[in-house]
Specification:
alpha+beta
Length: 103
């Protein structure tokens, strides 16, 4: 029975990690675009570990400098996650978007 519990925990962890999504370029234009990343409400968007990744994506896209045109909370995403006990839980994932323009 212990082996099954360990396997269930490992599978649940992999499922959660596999569903997690970091910063990504949501809109790609010649002169800039929009990056989005998930954040937790209690942590805030500025302290999200994915903000650094979003800023790095903008720098890569622009080959250096960029200007942030606007930023704010974007459409959230809901997903179902399996719990260790075998039940399902609805998770609401909040997202932050940054529109930027290359200089």
């Amino acid at each position: 029975m212990k082996h099954r519990s360990r396997v269930a925990i490992i599978v649940a962890c992999l499922a959660v990690v596999g569903c997690a999504e970091g910063a990504k370029l949501a809109q790609d234009r010649d002169d800039g675009g929009v990056v989005v990343y998930p954040f937790k409400g209690e942590q805030g968007y500025l302290l999200s570990s994915f903000r650094k990744d979003a800023l790095s994506l903008m720098q890569q896209k622009c080959g250096g400098t960029y200007t942030i045109v606007r930023e704010g909370e974007t459409k959230s995403r809901s997903r179902v996650a399996e719990t260790v006990q075998g039940s399902q839980e609805m998770i609401q994932e909040r997202r932050w978007g940054i529109e930027f323009r290359c200089k």
